[in-house]
Design a protein that fits this description.
single chain, 232 residues, alpha/beta, Rossmann fold, Arc Repressor Mutant, subunit A, five-stranded parallel sheet, 8 helices
Length: 232
Amino acid sequence: MNRKVLVVDDEVSIVKLITFNLEKEGFKTLQAYSGHEALKIIKEERPDLVILDIMLPELDGFEICRHIRQEKYPTAVIILTAKDDEIDKVLGLELGADDYITKPFSPRELLARVKAVLRRTSQWETFMDEQVLKIGELCIYPSRYTVLLKGKPIELTPKEFELLHFLAQNAGKVITRDALLNHIWGYTYTGDTRIVDVHISHLREKIESNPKKPEYIKTIRGVGYKFKEARS
């Protein structure tokens, strides 16, 4: 079945460029040119992925991303940002975006990121490992995409869950930022590990009793992160 991608941008030329390249690769595409139009399509069509410009009329991309996560739609999000606009990138990731791409971009880069995000979500949708990971007061259920902390469910974005699960699978080991980029995002950023740090920070806010003094996810300065080791 062809994966369904919604392209949201108020620039017609950008929408046409992205749509052309996606359809050439076999994706089914939908188009929206405003925030309200995008929300209507997301609700009715439930796309697998939304490629979302930040600067939109009526309702900006941040609000759309927030709405997608609040409604718990199983939709991946890639945000489009202006070149070198780090604030937009960080805010988008904190709101639950799975990835970002800066304008101007090449069709090859766009397709690589689209395929990487969809490959990861597809793998998790079909992952049927029933083993439960228990570390401290955390219980991770891979097949149900569920995390419990002290018996209560924790709401995570798809990328947050994948990151937490991978770290927990490697509890006690130091995992570099580059390794996390390769495993979770499926390709290597050109020296930009900010996306990992933002997701780790967001995870800590959700699972740590004191995010500034984390119990589960430790920072190994200059290297990466280490997850709390399970007691035997």
